[in-house]
# Entry
Amino acid sequence: MPPPPVGDFVRRIWALDLDGTDAGPERIVPDGCCEIVLTLQGEVRGSFPGRAAPDGLVRRPADILVGQATGAVVVQPLGPVRLLGIRLRTAGAAALLGFPAAECTDRIVDLADAAPGLRSSLRAAVDGIREPDAALAAVAAALRRFVAGRTPPAAEISSVVGAIRALRPGLTVHGLARGLQWSERRLQRAFAADVGIPPKLLHRITRVQRALALAGARPDDTWAAIAARAGYADQPHLVRDFAELAGCRPSSIRADPAPLRDRMIRYD
# Structure
């Protein structure tokens, strides 16, 4: 995570440069974060959240805000591409952009419409820069200027997000609300505004992501073993969550190519 004040809003800044030789469609599974993506060269097409079939991919604007997703998307570069991305903290989008996160849930919108001032700042920062590390540093500097004086995400919501991300055993929405001395309804409303998805869905997304990380780190483990380590009651529970959130069976996603994810240069 970048240092404060940018790190109060941003989880990761990344750059990607693909030569087009490995540009097949790639499935992107929800991770509980909104993201800003700038296309500096080339064209990327993609599906919309929850409609992750690799056919019928549509052209996207050059600069986009990807809202919280409740289902997987498929993206495919068309030839060589250069991309820059800003993955926001789970509760960072509303604080950074100044509107409720729920307004862009399951939507991919033109950044020029969602945040014209931010888009202009980012484009001005990277104009003419081709070296990825220099572009990452320029984006970080532009973000420092943009967030100066902005109020970070609410501490209460950040604490609940942290508890969910930790996948603590026995976690419930009732218990999370009670820990803040809030009602469940108040917590749900705050999550809609600041996060864009309910706490329970964030928990499910986090658990799927934990399973994916374990599958990558332990390629010889069975899915039953991964399910147990990720906190699922059993393998069928894991399979159901993958079907809904990833749009496929676990065995399918393990075999998916991932040139976008694997070749990112990160600024943490």
Q: What stands out?
A: The beta strands are 10-18, 26-28, 35-41, 44-46, 58-59, 63-66, 73-77, 81-88, 108-110, 265-267.
